Amino acid sequence: MILKEAFDYSLAFLKTKSADEAEFKALCLVCSLAGVRNSQFEQKKSEAFSFDLLDEKLSLLAGGEPLQYVIGKWDFYESEFFVGRGVLIPRPETEELVELAIKEAKKFSTPVVYDLCSGSGCIGISIAKALPDSAVYCVEKSKNAFKYLEENIILAPNACSIKGDIFKPEEFIDSFKKADVIVSNPPYIRSDEIRSLQTEVQKEPIIALDGGVDGLDFYRAIIKNFSNHLNQNGVLILEIGNEQGESVSEMLVSSGFSDVEIIKDIYGNDRIVKAK
Predict the structure, then answer these.
(1) CB 230 within 8 A of CB 179
(2) How far apart are the C-alpha atoms of 3 and 150, rounded to whole Å?
(3) Gap between the terminal Cα atoms of the chain
(4) Per 3-state DSSP, what percentage of the chain is helix, strand, and coil (rounded to 5)?
(5) Helices 122-130 and 94-105: crossing angle, nearest 10°?
(6) How many CB atoms lie under 10 A from the CB of residue 46?
(7) CA–CA distance from 45 to each of 6, 24, 25, 37, 209 (Å)?
(8) Cα–Cα distances in angstroms (integers) from residue 100 to residues 17, 82, 151, 241, in the given order
């Protein structure tokens, strides 16, 4: 079998199972198994392809397993991160959070950055790679997610992985220098909305999605527990759900933050709140 035949076979299989984005998934899967980039498909399509794992992975896709988990890694910002069951899948709109954090961190000579609720580490590690003179602390509570964080942390020698619960910062914060930038993409979906999410999203860990009754539990914890760990002129940058900008902004203002700003993502939705 050659790569083109593997793609045709995969596409036909996924279409018979009425899989969403069948062509894209087929392309990503066969290219991943062949060890080539999607952009190289046309160039490499006549090369030999090993059939060994294809049926197993196609069955997982047909059963609703996220493509990223089936492949085991995913591109984010300028790197490729290991992902799988138990960790949140990196999303393109979160790259805007990274861009903003890098921009703000560059205002400090040797910036210290906290990435709270780090998951795979895609945010903190991307910042660390972009700013070699920075020190980045990636904090994650989940045992399953932390496994991927530790696999990915080797991408940036100036980033470190910390097993910690942001609701109990006293257990780890004493080892940190004060931060110039604190960034987080915390769980922010309301508990009663979890069951209405797309099937593939429901395969992601509940711990990385559920933000409590109103979706704001983690914002409260971050503001309460970490505000005093920001240096003067330090910046807090939070990813939010598209209806949470006003609520999170009000929390920040009432907690003494200034220059509070709501920023829209590439899709035109409120996505980030930034404050000093």
Answers:
(1) yes
(2) 33
(3) 58
(4) 45, 20, 35
(5) 40
(6) 11
(7) 9, 15, 16, 11, 38
(8) 40, 23, 25, 17
Q: Are 25 and 67 in contact (CB under 8 A)?
A: yes
- DSSP class of residue 191 equals G
Q: Using CB atoms within 10 Å of the CB of residue 48, give its burial: 0 to 12 exposed, 13 to 18 middle, 19+ buried.
A: exposed
The encoded tokens of residue 170 equal: 């006293």
Q: Give me the helices (H) in the chain, please.
A: 3-16, 22-34, 41-44, 54-62, 67-71, 94-105, 122-130, 143-152, 199-202, 217-226, 245-254
The two structure tokens encoding residue 70: 């089936």
Among 224, 237, 236, 105, CA closest to 158: 105
Helices (H), 189-244: 199-202, 217-226
- pLDDT tens string for the chain (276 positions)? 899 999 999 999 999 998 889 999 999 999 999 999 999 999 999 999 988 899 999 999 999 999 999 999 999 999 999 999 999 999 999 999 999 999 999 999 999 999 999 999 999 999 999 999 999 999 999 999 999 999 999 999 999 999 999 999 999 998 899 999 999 999 999 999 988 888 888 888 899 998 999 999 999 999 999 999 999 899 999 999 989 999 999 999 999 999 999 999 988 999 999 999
CA distance 130 to 92: 17
In angstroms, the CA 222 to CA 218 distance is: 6
Backbone angles phi, psi at 48, to 5 degrees: -65, 145
